[in-house]
Design goal:
binds FE2/S2 (inorganic) cluster; Ubiquitin-like (UB roll); 12% strand; 208 residues; DNA polymerase, domain 1
């Protein structure tokens, strides 16, 4: 049976009985990126597998530290596999899958990729992280985003978070210019751009 992680330690704030982390994570849940339980070596049951056609193929992927065996059609993009088969609704679509907005960004084998431009079958054997996983792996980043008001409607936010997480995995303390460059492919219709480098710098600084 999968083992659940121990609850994270909480840091109390001026928000009364609600911890800063709980406040941040509840905000992410509202964005469609609720935290998921972690890590298992056995394949996790898939909620509702679609009917398999003759052309369907089986793939094995690890998503947010859960292993899955999925049946996918060759033309299905990773975004749809994650959303429709695994229910990971943080993976968004702001440009009708034209590769222009970054809201569908997920981390595949350590690199941020546009899941609307990546076929599910290409990801056989891949290790994938979505914003749901970031909520567990970098709660400090989520907290920095919430407390620095990096979102208005919040639709683009999971894509920004995932891109920022991939940067912090690669560079522990990135310069502001590196953050701006890394986030350059993520669009925000609400114009929250100035807030993102502040949050990422804060999360990077708090990591020491
Ligand atoms: S949905 Fe816009 S880049 Fe993928
Ligand atoms: S916060 Fe609304 S699109 Fe970015």
């Amino acid at each position: 049976m999968p083992q659940r992680k121990q609850p994270h330690e909480q840091t109390k704030t001026g928000l009364g009985p609600i911890s800063r982390r709980d406040f941040a994570l509840s905000s992410v849940a509202i964005l469609g990126a609720a935290s998921a339980p972690h890590a298992a070596s056995d394949p996790r049951p898939v909620p509702s597998p679609p009917p398999a056609a003759a052309s369907a193929r089986k793939i094995r992927i690890t998503v947010n530290r859960w292993n899955y065996e999925l049946t996918v059609e060759p033309e299905w993009v990773l975004r749809d596999v994650l959303r429709q088969q695994l229910g990971l609704l943080s993976v968004k679509d702001m440009c009708n899958g034209h590769g222009a907005c970054g809201s569908c960004t997920v981390i595949v084998d350590g690199r941020p990729v546009l899941s609307c431009m990546t076929l599910g079958v290409e990801c056989d054997g891949a290790n994938i992280e979505t914003a749901e996983g970031v909520a567990d792996s970098r709660p400090d980043l989520i907290e920095a985003y919430v407390l620095n008001h990096c979102m208005q409607c919040g639709y683009c936010t999971p894509g920004f978070l995932v891109t920022a997480k991939a940067l912090l995995d690669r560079v522990m303390r990135p310069a502001e210019s590196e953050i701006r460059e890394a986030l350059g492919g993520n669009l925000c219709r609400c114009g929250t751009y100035p807030r993102h480098p502040i949050a990422v710098l804060e999360a990077a600084g708090g990591r020491a």
